[in-house]
Amino acid sequence: MTVSTDQENCPCLSGEQYGQCCGRFHRGEAEAATAEQLMRSRYCAFALLDTNYLLRTWHPRTAPAELELDPGMQWRRLDILSTSRGGPLDTEGMVEFTAYYRHGSERGVLHETSRFVRENRRWLYVDGDVQA
């Protein structure tokens, strides 16, 4: 998936244009105000193969040393199912989501509950529990 302009719809399906949604986070112009915003921007980064953003927003305690994304993985849709805490004044939050993908002729769904922490006014992804 590619986004050629900031005026295109954001891959996170928020209904906003990429430049006003996840693009500003990816470019480092703003920080996500909520755990859900960070979740959406990370999904978008997976869809756009932005490993730098993913590593920058991963908690250092749980982040991999390096990250290699599969360009054959096409992320198609993100559905936020629920959030717990994760607001602008919280220090932790959880986001449950389903993300739909295609890889070659295979179609699949990732269902995860992700944990986030807010440190130094920045939300960071910690880890997640994948549901079968």
Automatic annotation (TrEMBL):
Residues 34-128 form the YchJ-like middle NTF2-like domain. It comes from the Bacteria. Pfam families: SEC-C, YchJ_M-like. Signal peptide: none annotated. InterPro entries: NTF2-like_dom_sf, SEC_C_motif, YchJ-like, YchJ-like_M. Belongs to the UPF0225 family. This is UPF0225 protein WHH00_19460. It comes from Pseudarthrobacter quantipunctorum.
